[in-house]
UniProtKB/TrEMBL annotation:
Residues 1-77 form the DDE-1 domain. GO terms for molecular function: DNA binding. GO terms for cellular component: nucleus. It comes from the Eukaryota. Pfam families: DDE_1. This is DDE-1 domain-containing protein.
Length: 85
């Protein structure tokens, strides 16, 4: 994910941001925050983790390692439909 200050950066003036090979989001500080993280986790990470093992005929296993940054909500992202151990 790429985070910038502007919702519509001038550098991407004639470019459809949704077609970029990276997910662009904006925040006032251009820093990760809990809301951006939760949005990314539920809309990008979880679907990708579900899709990849199915496409490769692998068991559903994934690990996401996070540090203790304040932008990483600890309990709020755990309850998902993914299997946990």
């Amino acid at each position: 994910m790429l985070i910038g200050k502007s919702a519509k950066p001038r550098a991407f003036k004639n470019i459809n941001i949704k077609l970029l090979p990276v997910h662009y989001r904006s925040s006032k500080s251009a820093w990760m925050n809990q809301q951006l993280f939760k949005d990314w986790f539920h809309s990008e990470f979880v679907p990708a983790v579900k899709k990849h093992p199915k496409s490769q005929k692998l068991p559903m296993k994934a690990v996401l390692v996070l540090d203790n940054a304040t932008s990483h909500p600890s309990e709020e992202v755990r309850p998902c439909s993914c299997h946990q151990t």
